[in-house]
Specification:
There is one protein chain. It is built from 13 helices and 41 strands. It is of the alpha+beta class. The chain has an eight-stranded parallel β-sheet. A seven-stranded antiparallel β-sheet has the order 1-6-7-15-12-11-9. The chain has a seven-stranded antiparallel β-sheet with strand order 2-3-4-5-8-14-13, with no helix packed on it. A hairpin with a 2-residue loop joins strand 4 and strand 5. The longest helix is centred in the middle third of the chain and has 18 residues, at 334-351. The chain is globular, with a radius of gyration of 27 Å.
């Protein structure tokens, strides 16, 4: 049911008018009181507009009209619990376009984005490192309080959102819109109500604050894994990948004696003679972080028979059973959790494990709780709440300072409890990164499953996982990391902390069916809402914003694409851009309007382009350390009229290549690297390259001097 509230007025007078469609019930505060699910208060006086929400001003600006005053209507609609408030500004028939300009004030978790699917254009999955200036952004989303303020995307309305200030407690943005009709839209509880995530309460939890990259034992050794496998892998990863940002070594299925009472998890089988605590200590001794797989299944019938009250019952009063989960621990019974669940995670944390993968959760939910809903109905318990209670007990024992990954399939019931979610079935697929792109680092960290560095996927899979800011785990035998296929793995990590550029899913085919999680009774196969295997998008863009400059990185995974218009990437269509092919380490060209990506090289099965606005002087194009062309390693960059200078983080023994343009009228004089040797310089047309190499991981200064031709 939709309810409508309306008000209308004509600008031009000086009398202040208050248009209030429901005052906030309480105010936002550092204690993170829940924000009101109510429309904002809109105040319009003459040409001024102020929007108040949660006790503070979130927008203040001016409305300009060339002649006759604009017509303003303010309406608020409530569809079930989703509130949509629309401030419509319409120009007089005899007047020119309107202009709206003002400041959006939000929390330190706010960022600019697209709130709604565009009416036209290419399918591009967008993320940002830093506060993006992308021209496709037409909204500000405040994650802490879950509200969105946007301008509707209309063919003759132009909108621009520009970051202004990013402080420790607040962020401000300049919002500008022009057109004969401007529709300013406010939506409180955006992800919770408009996206249907009823457990999304971001004022109660934060996204995991750092990248997660490492290795998982599953596809390397399956359940045959032993202690020596883990130690050998830790040795190799520490030597070859850890310097580049790999941190976690995750032991998967194969160490436990059975799925049952706590002792079967805590006292490992004979393949791990030194025990789990010693193995965690060994991993830490290599400078890495120990991670471990666990499972919600329970198979000890004798325990269940002795404590039937701890388990879910079938309609006849017997012990309920489900595929892959066997006996079903009742998450609504605190005694069951105290006896069977909490001791496992309390002790594993005490042993030093820092990352916990909790598997078989879909089976606990579907075959366990949904299939035996009568058990919970008889107790007067919500089965989703019982499921959350089970996983919450794990969270409480490991603490918020340990990483918790829910596995497998999308688990909307665990929003706010799990740090990450394995969104698809077993085996890596990047399709889900376009199907749940709006969730990543807003709801949780997306896990596309671990990556095998195969000949076909080594470059493509690492690239798309990194550019989307997703959870990043490899899963090969350690010897793989001693050869050429370790190269793309080194260039894709660390994963930058990102936010989505879209508050919608580019491929909506899966998230549109997320409601079905409440009614599924079998977890045997992927469901219509689990991340799929067929990609719905082939372009993945990462906007990078740094104090010394802005640029974009565009990954291509496939598709028949002749040309890519810069306008579709949110870049100024009238400007020229320098495009660098990162995998092939060459200048792709300088273009205006659009560029042709060309044929995808068979070796890489993907393309990565670093795109920077062309300057009329020598400029940095890219560095070789990371696929972002400088997003990880560059600390500073400056130009003084004759010298391009930078400061960078380099990895010990890894040649650090710097690529710069040498435009007409300039000659490259010399390149230097402070305190480390500068390698040979090379020239390919307008592109020059020089190399710095350090024997230790450190920060270095480098410079390139030019003289007039």
């Amino acid at each position: 049911m939709t309810r409508t509230f309306a008000a209308a007025l004509v600008l031009g007078g000086t009398m202040p008018l208050l248009l209030a469609q429901g005052a906030p019930r309480n105010s936002a505060s550092p204690s993170r009181i829940a924000p009101p699910n109510e429309p904002a208060i809109v105040e319009i006086a003459s040409d001024r507009i102020v929007i108040r929400y949660g006790g503070g001003v979130i927008f203040e600006g001016t409305i300009s009209a060339s002649a006759a005053p604009a017509r303003v209507t303010v309406n608020a609609y409530r569809t079930e619990d989703a509130v949509d408030q629309v401030i419509a500004l319409t120009a007089s028939p005899s007047a020119g376009p309107l202009e709206l300009a003002g400041t959006v004030t939000a929390s330190a978790e706010a960022f600019p984005a697209e709130a709604d699917r565009p009416l036209r254009g290419m399918q591009v999955v967008r993320h940002a490192s830093g506060l993006s200036r992308n021209l496709r952004n037409h909204a500000v989303y405040d994650r802490r309080w879950d509200w969105a303020l946007s301008v509707d995307d209309q063919p003759r309305t132009r909108t621009r959102v520009t970051p202004v200030l990013a402080a420790a407690t607040a962020r401000t943005f300049r919002l500008e819109a022009s057109g004969r009709e401007i529709l300013l839209r406010f939506r409180p509880r955006f992800y919770q109500q408009h996206r249907g995530l009823r457990y999304f309460e971001p004022w109660t939890y934060a996204i995991w604050p750092s990248p997660v990259a490492g290795w998982c034992s599953w596809f390397a050794f399956f359940d045959k894994v032993n202690e020596d496998d883990i130690r050998r892998t830790a040795d190799v990863v520490a030597a070859t990948l850890a310097p580049f940002g790999y941190e976690y070594i995750q032991l998967d299925d194969g160490y436990q004696r059975a799925t049952g009472a706590p002792e079967f998890w805590l006292q490992a089988n004979q393949k791990f003679p030194s025990g789990l605590a010693a193995l965690a200590e060994y991993i830490k001794g290599k400078g890495l972080k120990p991670a471990i797989w666990t499972n919600a299944a329970f198979s000890q019938t004798d325990v269940a028979e002795r404590h039937r009250e701890w388990f879910v019952r079938d309609p006849k009063g017997g012990l309920a059973r489900g595929n892959w989960v066997d006996l079903v621990v009742d998450g609504s019974n605190p005694a069951a959790l105290d006896a069977l669940v909490r001791p496992v995670y309390r002790e594993l944390r005490a042993q030093g494990w820092e990352y916990f993968k909790l598997d078989a959760l879909r089976h606990l939910r579907y075959e366990g709780y949904n299939a035996y809903g009568g058990h919970f109905a008889a107790k007067g318990v919500d089965r989703a709440e019982a499921f959350r209670s089970y996983v919450r007990s794990v969270r409480e024992e490991i603490g918020r300072d340990r990483f918790l990954m829910a596995c497998w399939g999308v688990r909307p019931e665990l929003v706010g409890i799990a740090d990450a979610c394995r969104i698809g079935t077993d085996g890596f697929s990047f399709a889900g990164l376009a199907q749940y792109n709006s969730f990543n680092n807003v709801v949780w960290r997306n896990d596309p499953d671990h990556i095998e560095l195969s000949e076909r996927e080594a470059w493509r899979s690492t690239m798309v996982t990194s550019l989307t800011g997703s959870l990043f785990l490899l899963t090969d035998k350690p010897e793989r990391y001693l050869g050429e296929y370790a190269e793309p793995a080194r260039r894709a990590v660390p994963v930058l902390m990102t936010v989505p550029g879209q508050l919608y899913d580019v491929d909506p085919s899966r998230s549109a069916a997320l409601w079905r999680a409440d009614v599924e009774v079998s977890g045997r196969d992927p469901k219509p809402f689990d991340a799929g295997l067929e990609p719905g998008a082939h372009l993945y863009q990462l906007d990078i914003e740094r104090p010394f400059g802005s640029w974009s990185v565009l990954g291509r995974t496939g598709g028949d694409i002749d040309r890519i218009p810069f306008e579709q990437l949110g870049l100024e269509a009238s400007k020229e851009y320098v495009v660098f092919d990162f995998w092939e380490k060459r200048l792709h060209g300088t273009f205006s309007g659009s560029f042709a990506p060309g044929v995808i090289p068979a070796r890489y099965n993907s393309q990565v382009f670093v795109i920077r606005e062309r300057l009329a002087r020598p400029q940095l194009v890219a560095t070789s350390r990371h696929i972002t062309g400088g997003g990880v390693d560059l600390i500073d960059l400056s130009w003084d009229g004759a010298r391009l200078s930078g400061r960078s983080r380099v990895v010990a023994g890894d040649p650090y290549e710097v690529y710069v343009t040498v435009p007409a009228g300039y000659v490259l004089d010399r390149a230097t690297c402070t305190d480390v040797p500068a390698g040979a310089q090379a020239r390919d047309g307008a592109l020059a390259r020089f190399t710095c190499r350090s024997e230790t991981s450190r920060e270095i200064d480098w410079s390139v001097t030019f003289r007039p031709q």
